Amino acid sequence: MFLKTPLSEIINRETGEMATPDNVYERPLSAMADMYEDAEAVKAALDGGDPVIYKVYEKTVPQLAGELQWCMSVTLPGKIGREYYMTKGHFHEVRNTAEIYLCVRGQGYMLMETEEGETSAVEMRPDTAVYVPAAWAHRSINTGDEPLISFCVYPGDAGHDYGSIETAGFKKRIVEIDGRPTIIDNTVK
Ligand code: PA5
Ligand code: NI
Questions:
Q1: What's the average model confidence in pLDDT over 140-165?
Q2: Ligand 1, closest atom to CA 139?
Q3: CA distance 145 to 22
């Protein structure tokens, strides 16, 4: 696959859609219901129709260290209770693999943490890049009122390890307090 094409012909900055993706998937709330702090708000949202929280458009490349996997990640605007819509979040299976997110629309945060307990939250804004260093788990969180859309690139062999995040969550959460995104400790699990 050789690309010599303006980015505008490969991705739609308004919707995050990628031209001719090999794989497209959506995660509804039901796929990550126990990741939100407010169980009652989760139940109400599920009863209300199980909203789609985020979508991913991917190109498939060989799962080799020398290849680069790339995709579009689209986190929709919304909240479950006071907590903003977010991706599940993951470590890479191969820990020694980094990732670049180039935000093209929306606003939010990249929440990151290491297995040793360091945490970081980096703002995401259009036309800014966030570098996720190797061995940092990462989750994108949409704190705005339009889709948070990023172009992501990472090594082809990285893989996704959701295990510890599914079990223990991230150490921090981003919730709306007094109308503003606020980073708090995760005391739920
Ligand atoms: O590899 C990445 O970091 C992204 O492509 C994510 O997979 C995407 O944003 C969806 O998030 P998650 O894999 O945490 O469900
Ligand atoms: Ni990743």
A1: 97
A2: 14
A3: 29
| 39-81: pLDDT as tens digits | 999 999 999 999 999 999 998 899 999 999 999 999 999 999 9
pTM of the model: 0.96
Q: How far is the CA of 73 from the centre of ligand 1 (A)?
A: 7
Indicate whether residue 160 lines ligand 1 (CB < 6 A).
yes
Class of domain 8-12+14-185: mainly beta
Distance 6 CA to ligand 1 centre (A): 24
Token pair in block for residue 104: 């093209």
Nearest-Å Rg of the Cα atoms of the chain is: 16
Span from the CA of 87 to the centroid of ligand 1 (angstroms):
7
Mutate to test the pocket of ligand 1, among 22, 56, 140, 148 (most ligand atoms within 8 A of CB): 56
Residue 1: pLDDT above 60?
Answer: no
Show me where the domains of the chain are located: 8-12+14-185
